[in-house]
Amino acid sequence: MGGKVLKLGVLISGRGSNLQSIIDHIEAGKIPAEIKVVVSDKKEAYGLERARRHSIEALFIDPNSFSTREEFEKAVGDELEKREVELICLAGFMRILSPYFVNRFRNRIINIHPALLPSFPGLHGQKQAVDYGVKISGCTVHFVNEDVDAGPIIIQAAVPVFDDDDEDSLAARILKYEHKIYPMAIKLIAEGRVKIEGRKVIVKAEKKEWAVVNPPLEI
Ligand code: GAR
């Protein structure tokens, strides 16, 4: 024990169930990481409450009190740096980060998206999948670059889409897998197993199939 612990900053805008999953995995000793701070751009975000309950510092930074997006992001970045955060985890943070922020924390920002990227980027990934009629969707953890939901992919989980699904039922099925793959991605990074090579993320893992999570099909 006593090895290196990766310092995390988690950015949220809402309910914070992914944040909760990260907290639970850390508390269970499954990830060599520590959340130094949770930052929300929404005052009423329930995730702030979750953080405080686990004695994690929780900050609301009001985007409306800055005149530009960059100024807001600079304030967020300064708070993260003050706490020596090494990896920034976007967990339901509903803002597009500017090239300024991406550049400042190059290859140190990851995001969870509720679709199998590059399909259905942007808002409402689950509704987009239902409306399109795909039979499989899922979720993706990826590094953040200047383009929306387009950075190198670390891990994905596939989830079936049923004929009677609506946005909410699919979102609930996908969310269960989000709660598995986000902690897994952080664990891999914290253990130093992740390397970015161009568009690709190379992961050192025992099993070659580590990145594929196939839900059991019920027929
Ligand atoms: C999650 O489903 C996450 O994938 C999605 O918001 C939800 C946040 O839930 N993120 C995006 O759509 C980003 N474009 P949570 O606050 O309970 O973790």
Q: Order of helices and strands, N to C?
A: EHEHEHEHEHEEHEEE
Over the alpha carbons, how many angstroms does the gyration radius reach?
Answer: 17 Å
Percent of residues in helices:
25-40%
The small molecules bound here are: glycinamide ribonucleotide
At the fourth level of CATH, the homologous superfamily is Formyl transferase, N-terminal domain
First-to-last CA distance: 45 Å
* Number of discrete domains: 1
What are the segments in which pLDDT stays under 50 over at least 5 consecutive residues? none
List the strand order in the largest sheet. Answer: 3-2-1-4-5-6-7-10
What is the CATH topology classification name? Answer: Rossmann fold
What profile does the largest beta sheet have?
8 strands, mixed
CATH class: Alpha Beta
As a percent range, the share of strand residues is 15-25%
The helix count comes to 6
- SS-derived structural category: alpha/beta
Could you please describe the fold and organization of this structure?
- By secondary structure, this protein is of the alpha/beta class.
- It has one domain (6-203): Formyl transferase, N-terminal domain (Rossmann fold).
- 32% of the residues lie in helices and 24% in strands.
- It has 6 helices and 10 strands, in the order βαβαβαβαβαββαβββ.
- The chain has helices at residues 17-27, 46-53, 69-82, 99-104, 125-132, 167-190; strands at 6-12, 33-40, 58-60, 87-90, 109-113, 136-143, 153-160, 194-197, 200-203, 212-213.
- It has an 8-stranded mixed β-sheet with strand order 3-2-1-4-5-6-7-10.
- Helix 1 (17-27) runs parallel beside helix 6 (167-190) and helix 5 crosses helix 6 (167-190).
- The termini are far apart.
- Bound molecules: glycinamide ribonucleotide (GAR).
